[in-house]
Write a structure and sequence with these properties.
Layout (H helix, E strand, L loop, with lengths): L1 H21 E18 L2 E2 L8 E13 L4 E22 L5 E24 L4 E24 L2 E9 L12 E13 L2 E10 L7 E4 L4 E19 L3
Antiparallel strand pairs: 1-2, 1-3, 1-11, 3-4, 4-5, 5-6, 6-7, 6-8, 8-9, 9-11, 10-11
């Protein structure tokens, strides 16, 4: 009985030591350049042409090495996303014109899970990464700026409303990340493209006079450049 117990204990210690040796974790920070894709009946919606806006991300990541070249890299990140609209001109009469610029900021708790393939280059390594990510929105604002004849007039800030009703933003996002990177000892530098697959905007309303359902679909898009420092590499 004692021999079996100590044998199992010995195997468990070896397994734990192996897992610990294969797993590392680190801190990540980076810059995002985000936007949204807006489509109507599968085509780009001409009435809305959003622009990219800068944002950021910060968090922790882990890396579990399956082999010398292959690893799984999960993470937990705080990331801001969003987009810009405008400036758009609104003519009040022949002499008076207003311009409006809107900036949408959304806060996400993101969980990326990447598969990573490493190509050794001697003292460094080239990285290929791909995998899904899941995002949970927990706040956001729209900042609207009004100007009259190119002179700033006023600013407004409104809180975004999340939910599953019409004209509300979805609190849940998911998508696919594709990226490349460079490993320099304990530091990883990464460049990634994020393709959002979740429909963020709930809009199915009956359009007056036309008598049809107008359906808009909005998905997150974005690029990121990150620096990750692994503490045990």
């Amino acid at each position: 009985m004692n021999k079996k117990f100590f044998s199992v204990l010995f195997i468990a210690v070896l397994t734990a030591s192996y897992v610990q040796a294969q797993f590392t974790f680190g801190a990540r920070a980076g810059l995002n350049l985000t936007n949204v894709s807006v489509k109507y009946e599968g085509k780009e919606y001409e009435a809305s042409k959003p622009k990219y806006k800068p944002s950021f991300q910060i968090g922790v990541v882990g890396e579990y090495g399956i082999s010398d070249n292959f690893a799984i890299q999960p993470g937990i990140l705080f990331a801001t996303q969003g987009y810009k609209l405008g400036p758009r001109e609104f003519i009040m009469d022949d002499m008076l014109g207003w311009e409006v610029m809107a900036t949408v900021n959304i806060n996400y708790l993101q969980i990326p899970i990447n598969a990573q393939y490493k190509i050794n280059l001697g003292s460094s390594a080239f990285l290929l990464q791909a995998g899904p990510y899941f995002g949970f929105a927990f706040g956001g604002k729209t900042k609207t700026e009004f100007s009259l004849n190119n002179i700033p007039s006023s600013k407004e800030k409104t809180d975004l409303v999340f939910g599953n009703k019409e004209d509300q933003l979805s609190p849940f996002d998911f998508g696919l990340g594709l990226g490349i990177g460079l490993q320099l000892n304990a530091i990883q530098i990464g460049l990634k493209y994020h393709l959002g697959l979740a429909d963020l905007y709930h809009n199915e309303r009956m359009t007056a006079y036309l008598f049809h359902i107008e359906k808009l679909k909005m998905n997150n898009r974005g690029f990121s450049i990150t620096v990750t420092y692994f503490f045990s590499k």
